[in-house]
Amino acid sequence: MFLDELEKYVPILARKRKALVTIDDYGYTFYDKWDAEKKSFLKKFNYYPRVTDCYKGLPDDVYLMHLDYAVKEYTKENDVSMAWSASMSPIEYEMLCAEILNDNGWKARTTSASGDQGVDVIAENGDVCVAIQCKLYTSPVGNKAVQEVIAGMTYWGATVGAVVTNAQYTRSARELAKVHDIYLLHHDDLPELTSILDK
Fold it and tell me: Read out DSSP for 80-115?
């Protein structure tokens, strides 16, 4: 049966949904990336041979509805918090950074629904607004990331700028960040962001 075959993929789909459903500055929720992911999954899943006679010939919307239901039910009963993984996508990495901040007293969201303008995550805590550029890299992060967050701070009206990565930073990135008071962080630093900014 379709739902039985789908079951082993539901945890992955739940994490994908969490990463791809975004909220913009005005509180509107955008599902377009998640809708595209569902359709892409069904094509790869090749579900037609796996369904019982009662499912045959049904429009794709019915399968999408069942998929959504299975993911929502799984999410109700399971923790779908993201964990660091070397195989995660850049969007998932941005989502991870926002989630860590939300779990530690910040109000954080990804900016992908609004067009990032050099900023991937906006985090607010009281009067402090931090513009964050997230870089999932296998090599040291250079000047460009620092330049992007400097420009993005003006666009977003942020009071603080930061770059967050899983990697290291080049010497030139550190020098530029020092001149412009940009924080260069590892994602493991995010739980302590409040105390880092207070130093």
Answer: ------TT--HHHHHHHHHHHHHTTT-EEEE-TTT-
- Angle formed at CA 68 by CA 82 and CA 96, multiple of 5 degrees: 15
Enter the pTM of the model: 0.69
The share of the chain scoring above pLDDT 70, in percent, equals 88
CATH architecture, range 90-198: 3-Layer(aba) Sandwich (3.40)
Q: Where are the domains of the chain?
A: 2-77, 90-198
Query: If you count DSSP H runs as helices and E runs as strands, how many of each does the chain have, helices first?
Result: 8, 7
pLDDT tens-place string over residues 162-199: 999 999 999 999 999 999 999 999 999 999 999 999 98
52's CB contacts (< 8 A; 6+ apart) are 1, 2
Total Cβ atoms within 10 A of residue 74: 16
